[in-house]
Amino acid sequence: MSRARLLLLCPGQGDQHDGMFDLARTNATASALIDHLLAGQPSGSDIFANRIAQPLIVTATLGMWEAVRDFAPPPALVAGYSIGELSAYAVAGAITPEQAVTLAAQRAQWMDDCQQANPGQALVSITGLVLPQATTLAAAHGYHISIETGDDTCITGGPAAQADALLQAIETAGARGKRLPVAVASHTPYMQGAVAPLTQALRATPFRPPQTPVLAGIDASAVHDHARAVETLSRQVAEPIRWLACMDAAAEAGITVALELGPGGALSRMLQHRHPHIATRSVADFRTLDGIRKWLARAAED
To answer: Could you read off the pLDDT of 198-237 as tens digits, one per residue?
Structure first.
């Protein structure tokens, strides 16, 4: 595995499901960590509710990392999508899993507070318009770019009352739009009120130098220290995620293999489409941990 340069991908919300811990739980140490992290988390049956979803996804990602870390090569880079960026710092060893879950719960609460202070928010995806056109079209309806996912794909956030009008305008422009089942306009100015308390919480969190650089979602730069981590993690709740730039930065860093830690496989699919020369899979593609181990070994040899 010495020649392989591994990228670990930590997902955001959207692909969580009831069985998302099952594969990691086949490892006893990972199962114990999951149980430990789940203790004290908010209860409720809606795993897509922000206050439940964010700590739950961090738990799933870190549980899976615990399950595969003994046979995975040391990562050369870690990148996280939205809440996944917080997971990434725990994967990189800068914060503990417990700290990551605590911060995730606080982040979710502060974002929910922003939503309650300014209700009626929505997210709308746009496919088929280059980013400058999408930005202009969205702005005409009070929407902001939330996440840049491709040259002609993005997610926008804005007032729910204007969602239908935006969707009609997207269709008129010959593109495709979809309203997402999310009531929080994350990564837009709607979340500005969450930045200051999250900054304070991050500053107060003991932080070790990351064993692996973490890509900052807001500008795709490699982060190596506490001050920069605080800045980028806090700013990203109210600023767009430049995921397209993050994928390109990984390729420029010479990444040869990428593994998405789950739940889901959206990040691995995006990266494979953008940079097909990188051998890319998600843990969700496999039935067993041994299948992941064998794939990593083969991918490193190619």
So the answer is: 999 999 999 999 999 999 999 999 999 999 999 999 999 9
CATH number, domain at 147? 3.30.70.250
Give Dmax (Cα) for the chain.
Answer: 54
Tell me how far apart the alpha carbons of residues 243 and 219 are, in angstroms, rounded to a whole number.
Answer: 9
Residue 133 lies in a domain: yes
Q: β-strand 121-127 against 176-180: which pairing, if any?
A: antiparallel
Total tally of structural domains belonging to the chain: 2
Q: Give the tens place of pLDDT for each residue, 81-107.
A: 999 999 999 999 999 999 999 999 999
- Please report whether residue 1 resides in a domain: no
HEC per residue, the chain: CCCCCEEEEECCCCCCCCCCCCCHHHCHHHHHHHHHHHCCCCCCCCCCCHHHHHHHHHHHHHHHHHHHCCCCCCCCEEEECCCHHHHHHHHCCCCCHHHHHHHHHHHHHHHHHHHHHCCCEEEEEEECCCHHHHHHHHHCCCCEEEEEEECCEEEEEEEHHHHHHHHHHHHHCCCEEEEECCCCCCCCHHHHHHHHHHHHHHHHCCCCCCCCCEECCCCCCEECCHHHHHHHHHHCCCCCECHHHHHHHHHHCCCCEEEECCCCCHHHHHHHHHCCCCEEEEHHHCCCHHHHHHHHHHHHHC
Q: 137: domain range?
A: 121-180
Question: Residue 72: inside a domain, yes or no?
Answer: yes
Which residue from 123, 127, 128, 129 is spatially nearest to 143, judged by alpha carbons? 123
